[in-house]
Amino acid sequence: MSLPHARPDLPADDNASPAQAVCARAEVQRVRWLTGLSQTAFARTFAIDPDALRDVEAGRVRPDAMLKARLRTIARDGAAAGA
């Protein structure tokens, strides 16, 4: 059995300095885990494309501007962001 190939972590923002760079995958997971929701429930609750969420958490893509804004709102306002 072989292990999957490691993917490099994508920064959430290409313009961030190395000292301020945040891993996109880690940031999305952090916000989702704060809510205690599964990927499916998180996507449904906060009207996020579940495929986009899955791709970011898997490290395949960076979050787009809309997802980044939504995550900031969720992190700041929690459940109120889903209304």
What level of helicity do the residues show?
Answer: 40-55%
Derived from helix and strand composition plus strand pairing, the structural class reads: mainly alpha
CATH topology grouping of the domain at 28-76: 434 Repressor (Amino-terminal Domain)
How many strands in all?
0
Amino- and carboxy-terminal Cα gap: 45 Å
* Mean residue pLDDT: 78
**Rounded Rg:** 13 Å
Major sheet summary line: none
Strand content: under 5%
Global morphology: globular
Outline the fold blueprint.
Blueprint: H1 24-35, H2 39-45, H3 50-57, H4 65-77
Question: What this model shows, in words?
Answer:
The protein is mainly alpha-helical and 83 residues long. The protein has a domain at 28-76: 434 Repressor (Amino-terminal Domain) (Orthogonal Bundle). Helix content is 48%, strand content 0%. Helix 1 (24-35) runs parallel beside helix 4 (65-77). It is globular, with a radius of gyration of 13 Å.
Properties at a glance:
434 Repressor (Amino-terminal Domain); mainly alpha; 4 helices; globular; single chain; 83 residues
Summed up:
With 83 residues, the protein is mainly α.
